Amino acid sequence: MRILIVTHVVRKNDGQGRVNYEIVLAALAAGHSVTLLAAGAAPELVQHPRVCFVPIGESRLPGKLAQYQMFAWRCGAWIRSHRQEFDVIHVNGFIAWARADINAAHFVHDGWYHCGFYPFRLLRSFYDAYQVIYTLLNIGCEKWAFRHAEVIVPVSHTVAAEVRALGIAPAQLQVIHNGVDVDEFAPGTPERTRFGLPSAPFMLLFAGDLRMSRKNLDTVLHALVHTSANVHLAVAGILHNSPYPALAASLGLTERVHFTDMVMDMPALMRSVDAFVFPSRYEPMGLVLLEALAAGLPVITVRTAGGAEVISPRSGIVLDDPNDAVALAAAIERLASDPEYAHRLGQAAREVAGTLSWQAMAERYLSLYEQVHARRTAQSLPAGCATASVEL
Question: What are the structural domains, with CATH classification, of the chain?
């Protein structure tokens, strides 16, 4: 097949970019050719003889609103000029003013806007007004993009529900969960000293953007107050402009909360802790959650975190209310006080991750490509040709 993938970047160290990176690798391994319409792509892909990289330069217009619209206009114009050269056109959300065969929905702005935890208000400040306008414009653009795609691929059932809320027919949706590197993220020898963590306590890990309230570190800290002193928390994320070190100090948790700042070697950090806590107030599909499962960590999360849907009581603890610090504390204590139970959850978590490898994810996308291509080919044949070919 001749495949066109349209996105901003295709590389390993980017969430959506990694998804597309793995799809490209699988497509090349299967003998297909791939064209990448993007602002950037990994050098090892660009150098491949069956990859054509068409760079779309970043606009110099001020603000993301104008820049994204210019990017989408340029991509749309290129697709319309080259559409007949491809068997499958795969876009990601609103990325181009053009029709597509497949649209992968990684994030739905309408879901974020109506989730109940949207932090911005139109009349509060200029910054808030800009963010609201930016979100509303994206809602409109995403509706257009989804309505101009044959198949929409939400990355979780949480995202699928948000897409359906836009009026998209369920028959158009096919959920494909994001993947995880089950070899890179795997149980192994702890390295607590390397990360400045004490060796004795039961160590939880929280990882995420420490400047965003939706990640919900505040509830984790309030829950920690209600747990035994043997329970500590490692917090991985950029500390600049984060309010959480001050909150931890005000709660008397300075000795029990260990801020590591940005960690580049997350697999090693995950091998160094006992459990992962992820009560995000809103999450389409958290890659870090899948990484924790692959690392064999017992996971405590909440239903508002996309990805929680893959966790059963056998492989983790899923709470109903992301703001219930008491319930979160009880779940933490259960893990900390029962090492055998925590170990069983971790083993089952690793098994779940095995079904969500990058290879498994990429193969699901390729299978969908083949279905779409076969359907388009059948539709283009004269009447009776498809039947004749089957009879042969």
Answer: 2-179+357-391 (3.40.50.2000), 193-354 (3.40.50.2000)
